[in-house]
Amino acid sequence: MRCPFCGNIDTQVKDSRPAEDHVSIRRRRFCPACGGRFTTYERVQLRDLVVIKTNGRREDFDRDKLERSIRIAMQKRPVEPERIDQMISGIVRRLESMGETDIPSKQIGEIVMEALARIDTVAYVRFASVYKNFQAADDFDKFVSELRPGAAADK
Ligand SMILES: [Zn+2]
């Protein structure tokens, strides 16, 4: 696993244990080149999901992107990190068990909003307001940067 700080390929695993949700293994890694420490998660890929964007383009489902957008919406909210992890795993399991490998991006957004609404109203409103604006544009990177706290203040 390449070090995210210095790019060194030869990193060491210091500790491995099941993550909170028990569907992944959490590994703490150490980079002997720069002393950096980071954590990786190993999980079973049940199916390879494809996202169908509103413009018809297909894109491999990216759990990290989903996770990033949710974490940004949840920023500084009084919710346990473990609870957020469980929610994300729950969303992914739902997507994986839908019976289709091709999933419209709109449907993913709705599932995320539903999950957020149950866990934290503020995070839900943050996500939903940005999601609805960008649904037409369907530009996820723009979406994520808009969600980032402070983005609104820059305008
Ligand atoms: Zn390094």
TrEMBL record:
Pfam families: ATP-cone, Zn_ribbon_NrdR. Negatively regulates transcription of bacterial ribonucleotide reductase nrd genes and operons by binding to NrdR-boxes. Its cofactor is Zn(2+). It comes from Roseivivax jejudonensis. Keywords: ATP-binding, DNA-binding, Metal-binding, Nucleotide-binding, Repressor, Transcription, Transcription regulation, Zinc, Zinc-finger. Belongs to the NrdR family. The keyword Zinc applies. One of its GO terms (biological process) is negative regulation of DNA-templated transcription. This is Transcriptional repressor NrdR. Residues 49-139 form the ATP-cone domain. Binds 1 zinc ion. The keyword Zinc applies. One of its GO terms (molecular function) is zinc ion binding. A zinc finger (unnamed) spans 3-34.
